[in-house]
Design goal:
mainly alpha; disordered C terminus; 7% strand; 7 helices; 45% helix; disordered N terminus
Length: 191
Amino acid sequence: MTAAARPAAARSTQPPVTSPDKALARLLSANRRFAAGKCRHPHQGSDDLHRLTAGQHPFAITVGCADSRVAPEVLFDQGLGDVFDNRVAGTIVDDLLLGSVEFAVEEFGCPLIVVLGHERCDAIGATIDAIREGGSALGHIGALVDALRPIVAPLMDQPGDPVENAVRANIQARRCSATAKSSPSGSVRAR
């Protein structure tokens, strides 16, 4: 569908966020609400869902791990249409995921990309197990392990919890990878 043929997109009831700093401030403020147990659960009803059928205007993009415990919209106390969420186990940033991120930047003008990790990541744990056992993982899980192995293996003898060390290293590596692979237009920039 061309831009001219698209229906006019409905806007959120909150003011638009046009800068990375304002987007990050909104997310951090809302995360403090979440941490304090004072979530507002904004615009999450059926009327909001119907409003969004006309179009979306997310103000932030998240890249994170596919995990049932860490939904970004919950952690950042956001509603439908606020966050363009991209998740895959291990926070693997491949060309398909990066294309999704660049699409959101170009199509919706999202000013902020947040790369998330989480405690006790099972994909990292599976990679550590495969390294310790000298093998790989079964099926397509092996592709995740193979993608994470170069980041995780050098950390195996480091002090501290290997999963937590690897989660931090993985997020840094994914942020750098996304920046290095970004489109020529410079859509994706690290801050």
